[in-house]
Design a protein that fits this description.
By secondary structure, this protein is of the alpha+beta class. It has one domain. 34% of the residues lie in helices and 11% in strands. It contains six helices and four strands. It has a four-stranded antiparallel β-sheet, covered by helices on one side. It is elongated. It binds iron/sulfur cluster (SF4). The site of iron/sulfur cluster has 12 residues, from loops.
């Protein structure tokens, strides 16, 4: 083989390798993530956001500590969850997140746990889900024992980790409002930190 031909072959091989490496790196496109999210039961809408746009604030856990009858009753609620400062550092370790709007009475916790696992299995090894409200999986949480009965399902809610859900959701262009009466239907949101 002439030297010029050999050089051409090596260049072609390098191009093929570069292309297949790029393909492997972009398997989890935003479109793939959004399709996976929208397939989950109870999902109204999902958007890719930057974790830098997730708002954290120290006041959020005051709302848990004073005024919520679930405080200390569950292993995925305060005081067992990260502070706003810790959560900020966690968020800063990610570049993409999926913010998901759920229908009222949707099984948010189960959908988020399922989606976290699905995305993890697609190659996002850092995938972590944040749910909404108290943990629904046991009648009574064994807080004194300190271990969770369903670690594959139970994840903290955004607000339990010092995330200002109202500001985060509004920033992403989703609807949310203060619930003023018992007849008013609240908006529920979940978050998956992807990679
Ligand atoms: S799954 Fe059960 S044990 Fe685990 S945090 Fe939720 S209520 Fe507690």
């Amino acid at each position: 083989m002439r030297r010029a031909d050999a050089r051409g072959e090596i260049t072609a091989l390098k191009t093929v390798k570069r292309k297949s490496r790029a393909k492997a790196e972009f398997v989890l496109t935003n479109e793939v993530l959004l399709e996976a999210a929208k397939r989950k039961a109870g999902v109204i809408e999902a958007r890719i956001i930057s974790p830098a746009d997730v708002v954290t604030a120290a006041w959020v856990k005051m709302k848990c500590r004073f005024g919520c009858d679930g405080y200390g009753q569950c292993l995925v609620c305060p005081p067992f969850t990260p502070t706003a400062e810790e959560m900020r550092r966690v968020l800063d370790g990610y570049r993409r997140a999926i913010l998901i709007h759920f229908r009222p009475r949707a099984a948010v916790a189960r959908a988020i746990a399922g989606l976290e696992r699905e995305i993890f299995l697609k190659g996002a090894w850092k995938a972590f889900g944040l749910e909404a409200g108290p943990c629904p999986f046991c009648r009574t949480c064994p807080v004194e024992e300190g271990w969770c009965r369903h670690p594959e399902l139970a994840r903290p809610a955004m607000e339990a980790c010092g995330i200002d859900v109202f500001s985060t959701v509004k920033k992403a262009g989703f609807p949310i409002d203060v619930v003023r009466t018992r007849r008013q239907v609240p908006d529920y949101y979940g978050l998956i930190l992807v990679d």
